[in-house]
Amino acid sequence: MAAPSADIRPLRSAPIDRLTSPIRRFLRIEAASGLVLALAAAIALVLANTAWGPAVHAFWQAKIGLAAGGWSFEKPLEFWINDGLMAIFFFVVGLEIKREILTGELRSVRKATLPVVAALGGMIVPAGVYLAFGHAGEAQRGWGVPMATDIAFVVGLLAAVGRRAPFGLKIFLLSLAIADDLGAILVIAVAYTDRLDWLLLAFAAAGFGLTILMNALGIRALIAYVAVALVTWYFTYRSGIHPTIAGVLFGMLTPHRAWLGRETLKLALTDVANEIGDRPEPIDLTAADVAVLRYAAREAVAPLQRLEDRLHPWVSFAIMPLFALANAGVEVNLAALGENISLAIVAGLVLGKPLGIVLFAFIAVKLKLAMLPSRTTWRHLIAAGFLGGIGFTMSLFISGLAFVGDPAMLATAKAGVLLGSILAAAIGAMLLYAGPVPEDD
User: Fold this and answer.
1) C-alpha distance from residue 189 to each of 186, 243, 246, 263 (Å)
2) Of 176, 280, 324, 354, which residue has the fewest beta carbons closer than 10 angstroms?
3) CATH code assigned at 361
4) Cβ neighbours of residue 431 under 8 Å, at least 6 residues apart?
5) Are residues 274 and 364 in the same domain?
6) What is the pTM of this model?
């Protein structure tokens, strides 16, 4: 066998890649985002209950923005996180929903029935439990708070319990969370939109229409889509609809098919390889060759997959922790936990969520519309119901929409979200730990 040429080097990682590989592996573990999120929430809680509390609050309320001529758009830093960066989070949610519907667990009616029905129960019953506390006035707007599930914390706990959570249960919970996210998006769009400016809404709709047209024309420049998205986000916000809805819709509009097929990619690689082989020494790769390879490699991956892979680490390890730092800083006040709003949210998360998830799942199974996942028992499903009560991020987000005009109610709601999420997580984890380790699938 001939010895390899000195100019032929194997595809191997550079020294810097070997140094950063542990970090990349950490980012690939989705469960780690739950740990980072918990750490950020703990920091926010500690700071809010020290002498630094007022200074931290003032920091998040500091106004920043843009101005040009007679036009200006200045908002508190908290706004740019909750309404700006969270739009990127919801964009990724839109990507995940589309992927699951087209190629994931929600593509099949039989597979989707159990998590979708369970998610429906996990939204209806907690809202009913909240309203059963007999709220009056603005307090009634909090019914959407206990409906949400924080998937990052759920995945983190599932990782912590290891093999005590069967693989089928993990798939069920992930699918349930996707359906739950879709329900939360509808609640935000319908229930927490008080006024509409139809002209500005038409401008926003034109932005979505332009995006569809650009996709149809084959425009691939990312900067063009970012520019349209920013303008559409602004018009969506000014129209009265929460701008995170724009993020979801842009996610749903992202193409799920690659621009270049496998055969086209092979031809592009073969053409470049043949051209290199026909050239006399020492002419190697040219800028044109690299451009072709770069284009082929990029467009052989579907935009949906490419954007989800790129943005997911940023959302999990930057945007969500920032959101927690800005919103989880609640002064510990035992009196607030005794308020009607707080008690209703705790009851909705700790009682309503598991009751709704398990009850609706039980009905679906008994009616033979669905079946339990592999190696999963009803005890596992009850534990999953409690894990679904970890509202945290999404519940805090909806709290901010429900009680935006009343800081006292908002603080009480946040206290209920934190306590309810902690209790639901503890009960769900204990139920999984208490049972035997299921057999491998």
Assistant:
1) 5, 10, 10, 42
2) 280
3) 1.20.1530.10
4) 379, 382, 383, 386
5) no
6) 0.81
Count the domains in the chain.
2
Integer Cα distance of 362 and 114 in angstroms: 9
Is residue 121 assigned to a domain? yes
pLDDT tens digits, residue range 246-291? 999 999 999 988 877 777 777 777 777 776 666 666 666 677 767 7
- Do 77 and 178 lie in one domain? The reply is yes
Q: Are residues 181 and 53 in the same domain?
A: yes
pLDDT tens-digit readout, 176-214:
888 888 888 888 888 888 788 999 999 999 999 999 999
Q: Which of 373, 413, 429 is nearest to 176 (CA)?
A: 373
Q: Which of 174, 168, 179, 183 is nearest to 371 (CA)?
A: 168
* CA angle in degrees (0–180, nearest 5) for 106-130-431: 60
| Structure confidence at residue 278 (pLDDT) | 65
User: Which of these, 272, 323, 278, 275, lies nearest to 297 by C-alpha position?
Assistant: 272
Q: Are residues 54 and 184 in the same domain?
A: yes
For residue 19, what pLDDT band results from cuts at 50, 70 and 90? very low
Task: Judge whether 114 lies within some domain.
Answer: yes
Task: Tell me which residue range forms the domain holding 142.
Answer: 45-64+72-84+109-193+334-434
